Each structure stands twice: as structure tokens, then as C-alpha cells.
Input
Amino acid sequence: MQAASNAHLALLKKNHIFQGVNEEDLQQILAASSERVLAPGEYLVEEGSQANSIFIIVHGQVEIVKAYGEPKTVHRLTTLSTGDTVGEIAFIDQGVRSAGVRALTPTTALRIPVSALHRLQASPQTYQTLLAEIAKGAAQRLRAMNTTTTIALQQALSISHARLLMGKMIIHIVVILSLLMFSVSGLSILADTLPHTTYVTLPLGMIIALSVALVLRATGLPWREFGMTTQHWRRACVEAILWTLPILLLISLAKGLMIAFIPYFQGKPLFALLPCIDPTMCLASQLSFTHWLMLIALYVFLVCPVQEFIVRSGLQVCLTRFLPGKHNVLAAILVSNLIFASAHLFISLPIAILSFFPGLFLGWLFHRQHSLIGVTVAHAMIGIWSLSVLQIGAL
Output
């Protein structure tokens, strides 16, 4: 007991509040004090309780908490540890507690009744010094609290802005999905009436891309957030080419396996190095080299950029921001490519399935570079190789 009393006396002497109090007065304060032992989660002070004592943390750590909202949600304001003073405002204003104090770790606190401190009025100089130190400590605590509150308000504002942005992105995704579903239905009808599907997919893609651009602009985010940047474009192009070459080899291997094991492809050549875009138009259609070059140019400079803008900027970026969790990037790539692949159903089911897997690579490349330039180059390489050289399907 004597050892505990000596430890408490040493604690009071170190505390700035009691710097001007002599040892005799400190002994009288200790005589009126008591010790509280708290388990983690236990309250030292309840918010709204009567303020009639102050506390000094002997050892342990506590948090100052305040409940807001309806239903009440507890928010941490700050933390205090060994040697800190809690609830000293009670010496000035014995109203109700404006916040609660809850133990974070096993904690021991020394409870000092305010009445024991008021007895020091018999020594005016000591009392005035005590009052001044408490006021100084309260001012420092208030200043720190203002900083904490400012940070909390900034975080709340950031969360509010993120929720607003998420709402816009949800609308954006719904609009894109609706347009794509309508387009798939329409393309299945028009594909049989026009000489080539590019004449349908390109105008429709431009319309969807324009809608996406308007929605992205409404978010207020800079265009570079959606991969619309020319920064490091040379490196992006070189990297895209180097990463795409092994993909072209894998696609060739995949067609070889299909020729070997799938009846639909059996008997067809692995490579068809003729200026043909659609297998059904090859040789029999006498597709001119000029016509072929024109379709290739449309594909490279319009179809690929438009499709990548819709899928990467419009879907992948927004899904990455919207989806929670540490695997949100992977989920965004999977979902955006699933949507992209479904838009190819009007051509055929095999083409829709085959377009999904290269899309995973393109999604990864876009996440790596955060630029549409690299994925557009890779998309063009994969498309020309798969659809013109290997003739897996139609552009």
C-alpha cells in the first residue's frame, strides 16, 4: 500500500497540473483519492455523467469517445496514456461529461475528487497556480481536438464526395449496360443485311463512346483518371508490343488445338495469309486489297480506340473505384470483360468466348499502364492477328 502511495505521489509530482502544489497538499489530495482498475472496453467515464472528479492514468491507454447520430455511433476523438489527465474540466465546470472515456488496454486510473482540489483555496497562490495549469492543459487539449475535428471533417467530406461519385458511376454503368444490351439485339438483325459487321459496330460504338464521355465528364474527375493521357506513350507502345507477342503465340496455339480437337475447325488451315477479313468472304468474295486495307484502317484507328475507351475508361475504371475490397481491380477486369464479350454474341458464341480471354490481358495491361494508348495497340495486334491472319472470326 505504501509502495502504491509513493508511486501515486511521484505521478502527481510529474503531472503539469500539480507543478505548483507542495508535497503536504499532494498527500492530502492522495488521501481523498481512489484507484480504478479497468478491463479493455470498460468505461472510466460515461458521456453525460456528472463531472465531479478528474483522473490520472497510472498505466494503460484510454480513448476519448463521443456518440453521434441516431442510432448512436461511437467515434474516437483522441487517445491518452500513462501520466495523462482526464476530465480536468470538471475542476472548472462541474456539469455533465461531454464525452466518454473507454479503456483500450488493461488500465489503472487514479480518481481525484474535485472537492479535494477545491480545499486548496486555503492557499490562494497554490490554488491559482493549479487553476492556471488546468486552463493551460484544457487549451492545449482543445487545440489538438480542433485539429482532430478538422481531419475528421475532411475525411467525412471525402467519403461524401466518393459516395456521390459512386452514385454517378452506378448510373453510368447501368446506361452502358442498357446500350450494350440493345446493341446486341440490334446487331443480330443488322449483321445479316450488311456486307460487313464493322459498318454497324463502328457507328454504334461511336454513339456509346459519346454517351460514356458525357458521363465521365459529369464526374468532375480529370481525363487522365480514365486513361486519357499521352504521358509516356512511347514506353506504353513498346511495352504493349512486347507483352502482346507471347499472347499472339498463345492464340495461335489455341487455334491449333481447336483444329485438332473441335470438329467445326477441323480441316481449316492454321494461317490464312490472304487479304481477307471474314472467313466467309475469303476467295469466293474476291475481297479487294484496297477494301481490306480500308477495313484494317477503320479497325485500328477507330474500332479499337472506341472499344477500349468504352470498356477500360467507361467500365473498368468505374468498377475499380466502385467495387470494395482488396480484389476490386481483378473483379473490375473480370466484370468489364464479361460485358465486353457478351457484346460479341451477335457474331457468334465462340467469338464471344474467345474475345473474353484476350480482354483479361488487355484489362491487366490497362491497369499496369493506366493509359489507353498501350491497350489500343495491343487490341489492334490481337484483332488483326486473330481475325485476319488466323481468321478465327470477323472484324
Summary: Residues 34 and 141 are 25 Å apart (CA to CA). Residues 165-389 form one domain. Confidence is low (pLDDT under 50) at residues 275-286. The longest helix spans residues 124-190.
